[in-house]
Amino acid sequence: MNTFDAIRERRSIKHYDPTHEMSDEEIEQLISLAALSPTSFNMQNWRFVVITDKDKRQQLREAAWNQAQVTDASIVVLLCADLKAHANNPERYWVNAPEEVSKVLVPMLTGFYDDNASLQRDEALRSCGIAGQTLMLAAKSMGYDTCPMIGFDIEKAAKIVNLPENHCIGFMITVGKAATPAQARGGQLPLDEILLRDSF
Question: What is the pLDDT of residue 28?
Fold first, then answer.
């Protein structure tokens, strides 16, 4: 599918075919594409928790105030991030770069994020947002529909997936085959209200 078409046709779908299952190959392809998303200093701080287990999905649905798409979609992807990725063996982020490049970037990365918890969290959420959009467009190109979700209890979700210390949850995305088409778009703001040139 053409990228422009995927952007135009991607909609937040609430009702899925509960009988459809994604293959392991499709799931790996989808996450491999999402993992090409850019991150600051290439630290790849996102973690994609793909949830297919029916019991866990039911628990997540309860944590999401019983929203049916959590159990009816083919998979749920919980987008999480490692808040300490900048300090987790950072040399590996430039394993294919020239040694002189790695020697400059490693101390720059650690110095930028060390002792700055708010920046670590901001970067985690930025990375999740970029990866989430990549994932949704990739899914659309693969013939799947998606819905990004923040309507759930984050603390309960963290317990369900055993979220490690120093990690946070950005949001989750349901992926599957739409059972009913999306409603008409609610309304797009005019370009002259959202497009500014050089300053406000």
Answer: 98
